[in-house]
Design brief:
This protein has about 425 residues and is an alpha+beta fold. Helix content is about 35%, strand content about 20%. The strands form three sheets. Strands 2, 4, 5, 6, 7, 8 and 9 form a seven-stranded antiparallel beta sheet that branches. A seven-stranded antiparallel beta sheet has the order 10-16-15-14-13-12-11. A hairpin with a 2-residue loop joins β5 (about 90-100) and β6. α7 runs parallel beside α10 and α7 packs across α11. The longest helix has 20 residues, at about 65-80. The two termini are about 45 Å apart.
């Protein structure tokens, strides 16, 4: 797979529509194995298309003609850039972020010495991109919102489409009004949860300290206890050990320990935070990418899940996962010193994508031993020590080995932040 990070100055499309509100663009191309090759004919041989394909049987569009027209448009887009490119270019990368209301574009040529030169999108590219979106909608039932193209000096064309099924990165995300206009032009039966929340923007999941105090008095007794989560001391220690393992392994994913906080963002767009408060209290909250309750609320007009019913007044915005600000919170549990409580949160099996593998000691041992290729007995000893607040350097060295002092330092720091190391070892 070819991975090329491209960051640079935004080139705005249809600036009269979006004005200065269009975001800066920063993106990573991931072409090759996962992208769609579109042939390798010389680009000079591509003649301008004759327009949309003729209708097929019974007025239905001819998909083969549409596919050829789609390729033609892509090559014409590449051609517009190539005509203005440097002599020694090796490949051209283009990102188009577009709706009917406008969008952004970014393009770079890369030379033989890996030097990158920004390309200014020629005016015809905008019209061709809009036309390609219309063809895409005829082919797939919906237009793309991001189009990533790589064209090589050997006339190879690779394409990757983003229809918004997964959250569009914040740097590439257009204003909500742009997507609203696009959905009017190209209606969809359902929108992904992230977009439903982005368009909603009502702050309905926020819970200020003032609101928390008011509702805590009125809704006392409405919550329920759950035994599906480990007790806080064990959960905290397990989170810390997995965090130490993942930083030692050099993983960009996985949990982390912060000041009085456990943080997790998973590869499937689920995530959570575990905030520990004085007095043996804690709040675990977060969300999964396509939570059923949120999907029903945003797409079917169902009631939003009541996540804070009966919550104490200390369950408020400062200790809630950032998804509460985004309308994407799908669970919230609080530890009151005696057990975990919740209101309308789902069962544990439905939040597993949003929390690390803290469910049992065996789960933690499985995760850590796999991540570090470590012996299970040594991992078990480290976990036992963490749950007792007695981790030593010797125990961690047995798990990590003594070959990488930087990995050890990073892992030790995670355990230190969590407060699970022995006082003598500190």
């Amino acid at each position: 797979m070819v991975n090329q990070s491209i960051q640079g100055r935004r080139e705005q499309l249809d600036s009269d529509d979006l004005g200065d509100s269009a975001p800066d663009v920063a993106f990573t191309l991931a072409f090759g194995g996962d992208a769609d090759p579109v042939g390798a004919e010389a680009i000079e041989s591509v003649e301008p298309g004759a327009g949309p394909a003729d209708s097929g049987v019974d007025g239905a569009p001819d998909l083969s003609e549409l596919a050829m027209h789609s390729e033609d448009l892509l090559r014409r887009i590449a051609m517009e850039f190539v005509n203005e490119g440097p002599a020694d270019w090796q490949h051209l990368d283009v990102l188009l972020v577009l709706t009917v209301a406008g969008g952004t574009a970014l393009a770079y040529f890369t030379g033989a010495d890996e030097t990158m030169v920004q390309a200014q999108p020629p005016t015809p590219v905008i019209e061709l991109a809009h036309e390609h979106r219309t063809v895409s909608a005829e082919l797939t039932g919906r237009p793309w919102w991001r189009l990533m193209v790589r064209f090589t000096a050997a006339a190879e064309l690779f394409v990757d489409y983003d229809y918004g099924d997964e959250p569009i990165p914040a740097d590439d995300r257009l204003p909500a009004e742009a997507y609203e206009a696009d959905l009017q032009a190209f209606p969809r039966e359902r929108v992904p949860v992230w977009l439903g929340a982005y368009l909603d923007q009502t702050g309905r999941q926020l819970r200020s300290p003032e609101e928390a105090a008011e509702y805590a008095m009125a809704e006392r007794g409405r919550c329920a206890r759950t035994d599906e989560l480990p007790p806080l001391p064990e959960l905290w220690a397990r989170w810390a050990v997995i965090s130490a393992a993942f930083v030692a392994a050099g993983s960009g994913w996985g949990p982390r320990m912060l000041l009085a906080t456990g943080w997790f963002e998973g590869s499937t767009h689920g995530g959570s935070t575990l905030h520990v408060l004085p007095g043996g209290r804690a709040v675990l909250s977060g969300g999964t990418a396509n939570a059923a309750a949120l999907d029903a609320a945003y797409n079917d007009g169902r009631d939003f899940p009541e996540l804070y019913g009966g919550a104490p007044d200390w369950v408020a915005d400062p200790v809630l996962n950032v998804r509460a600000q985004q309308g994407l919170l799908s669970f919230c549990y609080w530890w009151d010193g005696d057990g975990w409580q919740h209101s309308g949160s789902p069962i544990a099996a439905q939040i597993s994508d949003a929390v690390p593998g803290i469910w049992t000691a065996d789960t933690v041992i499985d995760v850590v031993s796999t991540a570090l290729a470590a012996e299970r007995g040594q991992v078990a000893a480290l976990l036992d020590a963490a749950e007792s607040g007695a981790v030593t350097r010797e125990l961690l060295t047995k798990v990590l080995g003594d070959d990488d002092r930087f990995a050890f330092a990073k892992a030790w720091y995670q355990l230190s932040l969590a407060g699970v190391i022995s006082r003598d070892a500190a």
